[in-house]
Structure formats: C-alpha cells, structure tokens
Amino acid sequence: MTLEVSDLQVYYRTLRGDVRALDGPTFGLADGEIMGLAGESGSGKSTLSKSLIRLDGRMRYIGGSVTLDGDEVPIWDDQAMNEFRYKRISLIPQYAMSAMNPTRKIGKMIAELLESRGVRFRDTRDELHRRLELVGLQRDVLDRYPLELSGGMKQRTVMVISTLLNPSLLIADEVTSALDVSTQRAVAETLVEFRDRRFVKSMIVVTHDISLVYQIADTIMVMYAGRLAEKASAKTIIEMPKHPYTKMLLDSLPEVGVKYEDKRLSGIPGSPPGLLKPPQGCRFRDRCPLADKQCLEQPPFVEVERDHHVACWKAE
Amino acid sequence: MRKYFGRKIFVYLLTFFAAVTINWMIPRLMPGDPIKSRLARASLTDATAAEALYEYFNNMFGLDQPLWQQYLNFWWSLLQGDLGISIWNFPTPVTDLIMGAVPYSLGLLLPSIILSWFVGNWFGAYAARSKWLDNTILPLGYVLTATPYMWLALLLAWSLGIVAGLFPAAGSYGLSLQPAFTWTFISSLLSHWFLPFLSLFLVALGGWAIGMRNMIIYELESEYSNYLQALGAPRRLVRRYAFRNAMLPQITGLAVQLGTVVAGALLTEIVFSYQGLGYLILQAIQNQDFFLLQGTFLFIVIGVLIANFIIDVVYVLVDPRVRVQMQGGAK
C-alpha cells in the first residue's frame, strides 16, 4: 500500500459551526494504482485531495491518520508537511493555467523552487529536459514566460514540474476540466505514462468526469456528502455499481449512440444535504429511492466483494 | 518596441497639445482685465496718462489682438522658448521666475514622492504579514490618505511650527538671509523645508501602504502562490514572488498619483508660503498674470508627462507581460 487513509476528518470552521466536509473516509491506495475520485460539487473530493498535501486556511484537521509508504503524514502540521510536499506527495492543481509566476521565466522559477527545497537544479536539469521532450515540449519553454505558452503547453509544463522529484503520491485535481476534449485525452494519457515510467508511484485523479477517468483509472472511488460511497475497479464501478448513488450518477451521464429525444437524461432529483448539521444515518437517504428505516443508521464502508467496497445497507 | 514607443510618444504629444491649449484658454476666461488692475494699483490720477499707459501695455503684451492671433502668437513664442513677460512682476521674464521657483518645488516633490513610495510600500508589505501591524498601520493609513493636503499642512504648521516652535512655519528660508552657499543659509533652508516636506510625505505614505498591503495579500492568495506552497516552497520564496508582483501596480500607481501629488504640493506651498511653483500660481491668479500662469502650468504639464513617460519605460523593463505584448503578443 502506498497510501493508507484512516477515518480522516477535516472540517471547515465557520461562524455558524463546523462544516463536516470530510467525515471519516478510510481507504487504501496500492502501489502503482491510479484511482479516480469522483463525486459532485460539495462531495468532499477536493477537501480530501487538499488535505493530503496542504490544508488551506479555513480547514481544520479533526482526527484520523494518513500513512504514506509506512510513514505517518502529519497533515495537521503545516511546517512538518513541507518535508513530504513535492518530494513524496505532489500536486497538479486545477488551476495549472495560472500556477506559474507570470513574471518569472519558467526555467528560473523551477530552479528557484528546486534550490529552495534543497535540490540542486544542475543535477535535475537533464532529467527536466528529457521529461519536457517526453510531453512534446521544446527545451526553450524554460526561457519563456508563462504567458508565452498556450494553455495546453502550460498544463504539460506544470505536469512535468509537479512530478520532477518522483513523488510516491500524485494528486491530479480536475486536471482536464479547463481543456478541450482532444487535449483532455492527451493529458490523461500522459498521466498514465508518468505512472508506467515510474515518475510517480500512485495517483489520485480527482474529477467529475467519470467517462474520462474510466479510460485511465484502475479504480474509482465515489464520494457523497463528505463520505465514501463506493470504491472498486473502474470496470466494476461502470458496469456493476452497487451503491444507489453511483447507479444514479452513471444514469445521468449521456451514452454514445443513444438518442435522447425519447428518453430524457434522468439526473438525480434533490440536492446533497448541508454539511453544517448533516442528517443522521446515510447521507444519501433523502434522495435514495431504496431508503427505509434501516438507513437512519450510518452504513459502514465494507468490502462486499473482493476489492469492492460499498457503504450502503441495500447493496447486494 | 519602436511601434510601442511611437504610439506612446504620439499620445504624449497629443496630451501636451491639449493641455497647453487649455492652459492658454483658462486664464483668459477669468473675469477682469489684467492691465486695468495693474494700472489701478499704480493709482494714476491723470486719466489721459492712464489711457496711454493702458494702450501701451495692451499693445506690448499683445492683448489688443484678436484671440486666435494671440493663440498663434503664443505657440510661436513657445516654440522659440519664450514664455513672455510677467505682468505681476514686470518686467521679469516668466522663464526667470519659473527657474527661480522650480528648485524649491522639485526639492519638495521628489523626496516626498520617492520616500513615501519606498517607505509606504515597505510598511505595507510588513503589515500584510503581521496582524499587529495590520491593525495599527491600516487604520492610520486610511486616515492619512483621506487627509486633504492643506489641512495636514495647516495642522503641522500650527502644532510643530507655532505651538511647539520646532520649525519655522512660513517661507523657504529665513527672511534676513540671502541665498548663499553658507552653513547658516543651508540649515535655514532645511528647517524651512522640513514641514512642507513632512505634510506631503505623510499624506502620500498612507495611500502607498494601503495599496501595497492589499496587493501583497492578493498575491499571496493567488494561484501561483498556492502552487508553490503546495510544493513546499519556503515562505521566503513565496513572499519574494508576491512582493515583486505586487510592486507592479504600485509603479503604475506612482504614475497616476503624480498629478495629484503636484496639485497637493501647490496647496502645501501656499500654506507654508514656500516660494515654489504653487506660490507663483497663487500670485499669477491674484494678479491675472496670464503669462506667468501659462508658464507655470506648462511646466507642471511637462513635468507630469515626463514622469509618466519614465514610468512607462520602467514598466516595460520590469513586467515581462508588457514586454511580450510589445513584441506582438503571445505566440
């Protein structure tokens, strides 16, 4: 196991109380695993991915543990986390287009970043050139300013920067959402290639685009309202989902070759519960067609089949 | 590069032309007749002599010609470097009066603008990272920046000048002194300089500090800062980038502020009876001295335009984004 997360709780402190954005997920990430992390807005997927690398100012660590390659990750301690960041846990941010300082040449920025982390730029330069070429970029992007690059070039540059120190865990946060469809595909394939070449050991790909993540992920984990709903291999999730939420989520996706004149796309009626005072029991209860009395109790996240975890009383 | 500066210079020339034209026009819109009021002060008893003198002066200053002719004459002599002769301080050429006043105005303006810019940015950058400083400097900054120049000047002249008696409250140097390169004169010059300088410095300081503090906070929340922090970059590097990028709008701000600061300096000079351009302008208005007014305004216009041009050049040097746009946009 590269990553083990156990009962992690991260809340947002607000004036009206704690927003329980991440309420106790427990899961593991195997060596070499690419895990798609799916869910709608407010499901906690971004909170989870941020928690693993850097809590922002409003987030409070409440409890639980994170272990990377057998070492405890002190996510509550911003200072101690610096040792892990970049070298062992890295991030391709959602905002890759604007992730680079606009007034520094890219090469200079990389050099300053590496030197500040105690890595000799001179020793890394050849590898940097090789990787830039691998993603189809000329070496001379290093002599340019970010605004001289196209969106796709910036995205690829950031991908190379983020993975330069061969982290164990890479978090790719909505990396494709700002790109057009053909570039999305290329970026997704690059992620797989980085894993295959062992630039990164394991990867969490946060997305709301299940169809894209299906193409590259080994496993998919679905979150709902701050909790885990289901985790299984990508194929199982798409073909034989067990959680009613996963089923409805998949039903709301358009399929190629189907005309939606007669059959409207269903969507999921209702909206996710507020997490300031989340309801008792299963949080999907109010929108779930199968819900009954049993669902007033919180369903555990259990392995119903080999490598297939579900948090639902009705999953059979 | 050439295209960029060509366009800039064209805009500056256009601005110059418009500003100078307005400068020429405004004094002539004032009610009253400069020659009459000047002769009135001479209190001539003989009506025919007054009439003759009026004719003479009117002819000499070219005020008997139609307006369009006066306007053309004005440009013609301006291009020859001739700003005319002062009516108020007849017969001193306007150029001489201005040259006598400019060192005093520049001596006030340059140090107050530059020092307040540096100190304000420095304070602002510090305030952005310390809660305690933020809670003290920020309110103070708002008060300072909202203070009218002349009000602060009056306050300082009254408190430090008259009540405490630490500094002289009026004049550019002691009344009994003649300008000379002596220790007495220079120390008198400095003590007279201090209060007007301080009032200009303080008002500008607040604005810079607030601007810098807000920009730094904005830059520290920006996405490149977040990315660096996610990759574990030390605080020092993140702050260095944020500071550098926050400086850019402050440089533009300097260009925009220059006009205001010059206007503020005029009021400050009047409060302290400081013999700079502001003092000349006051005299020119009170005596309806068209030529002196035109001359001083012209000087201010040129000053602001040159300063703006310098900042345009500096901006190209410090901001790669402007540089790239100049070379034909992103590839």
TrEMBL record, chain A:
One of its GO terms (molecular function) is ATP binding. One of its GO terms (biological process) is peptide transport. The keyword GTP-binding does not apply. It comes from the Bacteria. SMART domains: AAA. Residues 3-250 form the ABC transporter domain. Pfam families: ABC_tran (PF00005), oligo_HPY (PF08352). Keywords: ATP-binding, Nucleotide-binding, Transport. The keyword Glycosyltransferase does not apply. PROSITE patterns: ABC_TRANSPORTER_2. InterPro entries: AAA+_ATPase, ABC_transporter-like_ATP-bd, Oligopep_ABC_C, P-loop_NTPase. This is Peptide ABC transporter ATPase.
UniProtKB/TrEMBL annotation, chain B:
GO terms for biological process: transmembrane transport. Residues 102-311 form the ABC transmembrane type-1 domain. It is found in: Cell membrane; Membrane. CDD domains: TM_PBP2. InterPro entries: MetI-like (IPR000515), MetI-like_sf (IPR035906). GO terms for cellular component: plasma membrane. The keyword Lipid biosynthesis does not apply. It is a multi-pass membrane protein. It comes from the Bacteria. The keyword RNA-binding does not apply. The chain crosses the membrane at residues 9-26, 108-128, 149-170, 190-210, 254-277, 297-318. Keywords: Membrane, Transmembrane, Transmembrane helix, Transport. Belongs to the binding-protein-dependent transport system permease family. This is Peptide ABC transporter permease. It comes from Thermobifida cellulosilytica TB100. The lineage of its organism: Bacteria, Bacillati, Actinomycetota, Actinomycetes, Streptosporangiales.
